[in-house]
Amino acid sequence: MIKQTQKVTKKEICKNISINTGISQTKVSYIYDEIFKEIKKQLKEEKSLSITNFGRLKIFNYLNLDNKKCYLLKIKKSKKGWKNEK
């Protein structure tokens, strides 16, 4: 199980999903890539994305202290909460 404050890698996430589901790590890794590719595409096009039973993702643009354009991703949890949340 992944701790909430711990930084994790794609490999660790895929390994845990593979163990929990019995699906090979190769297939899980492919699905992981496709999911995040689609999320990234939607956020680039619309600047926000709502995923049912998960939450809303929104991109905010701002200038940092060096006047460089930066992006901030905020995630607002859905009202129903996340499924299987402990």
Please indicate the percent range of residues in DSSP E strands (runs of 2 or more).
Answer: 25-35%
* Pattern of helices and strands: HHEEE
Strand order of the largest sheet: 1-2-3
Low-confidence stretches: none
The 3D shape can be described as globular
Structural class: alpha+beta
Q: What percentage of residues falls in helices of 4 or more residues?
A: 25-40%
Largest sheet: 3 strands, antiparallel
Q: How many domains, in number, for the residues?
A: 2
Count of beta strands: 3
**Gyration radius, to the nearest Å?**
16 Å
Intertermini distance:
11 Å
Mean pLDDT: 85
Count of DSSP H/I helices: 2
What does this protein structure show overall?
The protein has 86 residues and is α+β, with helices and mostly antiparallel strands. The chain has two domains: 1-46, no CATH class; 47-86, no CATH class. Helix content is 40%, strand content 26%. Strands 1-2-3 form a three-stranded antiparallel sheet, covered by helices on one side. The longest helix has 22 residues, at 25-46. The model has no long low-confidence stretch (mean pLDDT 85).
